[in-house]
Specification:
This protein is α+β, with helices and mostly antiparallel strands.
Length: 669
């Protein structure tokens, strides 16, 4: 290949073009310079074989892909110029060839970097910006412009950006940047700004760093911006929920206890706490559903908030309990507020799902003085609330030291029963129920006694009211039933036909699994169900009609007896006998003790007997303590009797020793 200049080609043309050059005449390469030879040698190919004819003369450059022996193709950039015509020579073209493989690779890497950076920003929801301090130009990444509500490629100088910032945050941002430029170092700040629509307010968390030139002077600033609006929203919601009840929006127990502590701080005037409980709220949930119960809570919260004096703090402790803090109110003033709230609630119908619903409140008040502990204050208010409920509900009561003494006594009794139950120091006594027709023993009523070595011994009346405030009474009921079934199993195995009656509490009555548990226990022990009867008081039955009906159905269908105890002593009426399938009615001793003296008592006893017999039930007269009563009650048609005259309670263990014969082989009853 000749290296001399092509004849007639101006030297100036070749010098301007430079690089690797080739000329063609009639499509055939007729000359190339040394640079073209070296380029071909370096990439291992003959440039004459390139498809030069595909590059248009005086048109745009084209890239040609050039396969080479090592398998790694090179990319050559080729431009073409038309040479001046020469006489006798066909059209000549001059080609400049440059190897752009490395440039192309660099460009691909740059494009890939930009692509990755763009998508990383989009995935992480973080935009970037660069501030050239020499020119003042700020370059925003497309992702960040999009986060600002602007289209990609928008021009956003600092004044326009500053106008979008929330006004209260501008000084903080600029002071942070000034400090970072004065002492070049990383920086961060969180600020609010309006998006391009001018209405949407967002929160951005920004990080940046100042970079210096070789002389140490700040040259540029690089930064990131992350939209943390949703994070802040969640944090705000969590902070709100930490101190507020989600159902009513009122302050919760945490916020209320903090307010109590503030009221009891030294130097404060103190105040009074009102503890508010919705009467019979469980009935609302059970009969109307928890959705109605929740709506009652919301309506009551609004009622309390709108009718409390200015400065009062009302909150929800949980369940159906509210609390009101009356800062600076003495007990008399606070009780006046509490009474008004009770009256207001009783007179206000709550419109729930189109039906008017009336609720009443019980309120316990406790004064708060400087230095008082909020737990003690709540305990005092709770004692007063308990008294309000015990006296009939729909009223307010103020804490008195006597309530604390009674509570301490109640706690002591409960603890004593707990220890006795855990250590086997509970015992059962058995009092006979006599068939008045032949004075034979029909059954034995089992009575719980605490015999733990301490005096006095505790009887049910001493501890059941206290136990019924908690769950231990359910455990006690099951212990009594289990003990009775074990004794009946021993008697059944020995061929002795004993029968027991067991009193159960309202808490067990409310347990939907209790009846099935009793029936399973009898079957497992091989005891005929007719050997066991359960008793509930009239007041318990009236307060739990649905539960009483369910339990009665379960146990009577299995063959157990079910007695209504103390009939006539409560606030019930004969109508309950119609709706509850009892097998026996026990006439309260109040009507029995003087039945032989005439007057209204024998008339009432006669009415109960006639009603019970008409409904297929037996009758038992309680508290028969004189022989004269037996004949009168028998004449009135009473089926069975119970009382000290007919038989005093005796220990169940002693009864079992007398009635169940010893096993000849083991000597064990």
């Amino acid at each position: 290949m000749p290296a001399a200049l092509p004849p007639g080609v101006p030297d100036a043309v070749l010098q301007v073009m430079g690089g690797a050059l080739l000329t063609t005449c009639d499509g055939v390469v007729n000359w190339c310079n040394e640079a073209a030879v070296r380029l071909g040698q370096s990439i291992g190919t003959d440039l004459r074989t390139l498809p030069l004819s595909t590059v248009p003369p005086d048109g745009p450059a084209r890239e040609l892909r050039c396969p080479v022996p090592d398998g790694k193709p090179h990319h050559l950039r080729v431009t073409c110029r038309q040479l001046p015509a020469r006489e006798g020579v066909g059209p000549e073209l001059l080609y400049e060839v440059a190897d752009v493989t490395a440039v192309r690779a660099d460009r691909a890497r740059a494009d890939n970097y930009e692509w990755r950076l763009k998508h990383i920003e989009q995935l992480s929801k973080v935009g970037t910006w660069e501030w050239d301090l020499a020119t003042g130009e700020v370059i925003w990444s497309p992702t960040l412009l999009s986060m600002f509500g602007l289209p990609a490629g928008s021009t956003l100088d600092y004044p326009a950006y500053r106008a979008m910032l929330y006004p209260d945050d501008v000084a903080m941002i600029e002071s942070t940047l000034e400090a970072a430029l004065e002492n070049p170092a990383p920086f961060s700040y969180t600020h609010r700004m309006y998006l391009a629509d001018g209405r949407t307010l967002r929160i951005f968390e920004c990080y940046g760093e100042v970079f210096t030139d070789p002389a140490g002077a700040p040259a540029r600033v690089l930064g990131t911006a992350h939209d943390v609006t949703e994070v802040h929203r969640v944090q705000d919601e969590l902070a709100y929920l930490a101190d507020h009840d989600p159902l009513t929006g009122l302050p919760n127990r945490r916020a209320l206890t903090a307010a109590m502590s503030a009221m009891a701080a030294p130097g404060r005037a103190g105040g009074t706490l009102l503890l508010i409980d919705v009467d019979n709220f469980k009935d609302i949930n059970d009969l109307r559903g928890h959705g109605v119960g929740d709506e009652v809570m919301r309506l009551l919260a609004r009622l309390l908030t709108s009718h409390l004096p200015a400065g009062a703090v009302v909150g929800r402790l949980g369940g159906d309990e509210f609390a009101v803090l009356l800062d600076g109110y003495d007990p008399a003033q606070a009780m006046a507020v509490a009474s008004r709230l009770c009256d207001l609630a009783a007179r206000t119908p709550f419109a729930v799902r189109g039906e008017p619903l009336r609720v009443t409140l019980s309120i316990g008040a406790a004064p708060l003085a400087a230095g008082h502990d909020h737990d003690l204050l709540l305990a005092h208010a709770d004692l007063a609330l308990y008294q309000a409920k015990d006296e009939g509900r729909n009223r307010a009561r103020l804490f008195a030291p006597e309530q604390h003494r009674q509570a301490a006594q109640r706690v002591g009794v409960v603890s004593r029963v707990r220890r006795a139950l855990d250590t086997g120091r509970l015992e059962l006594d058995a009092q006979p129920i006599i068939d008045l027709s032949d004075l034979g023993v029909y059954s034995y009523e089992l009575l719980v006694r605490v015999r733990d070595g301490h005096l006095p011994e505790l009887e049910p009346a001493d501890f059941l009211p206290a136990l019924e405030r908690g769950d231990m009474v359910c455990e006690l009921d099951r212990w009594v039933v289990e003990t009775a079934i074990r004794a009946l199993a021993r008697a059944t195995a020995a061929g002795v036909a004993l029968r027991f009656d067991v009193n159960i509490s309202s808490r067990s009555l409310e347990d939907p699994s209790f009846g099935d548990w009793v029936v399973r226990g009898l079957r497992s022990a091989g005891v005929p169900a007719t050997r066991l009867g359960l008793e509930i008081t009239e007041t318990t039955a009236i307060a739990n009609l649905h539960d009483a009906r369910r339990l009665a159905s379960t146990i009577t269908s299995a063959g157990c007896g079910f007695s209504l105890d103390d009939f006539g002593a409560g606030y019930g009426s004969f109508v309950y006998l119609k709706h509850l399938p009892f097998t026996t009615v026990k006439i309260a001793g109040e009507f029995v003790r003087q039945a032989d003296h005439g007057g209204p008592d024998p008339i009432l006893v006669d009415a109960v007997v006639r009603a019970a017999h008409g409904l297929g039930m037996y009758t038992v007269a309680e508290h028969i303590d004189r022989p004269e009563l037996v004949g009168v009650l028998k004449m009135l048609g009473v089926d069975r009797g119970q009382g000290f005259h007919l038989g005093r309670p005796q220990r169940l263990d002693d009864l079992m020793l007398r009635t169940v014969p010893l096993d000849a082989a083991t000597g064990v009853p």
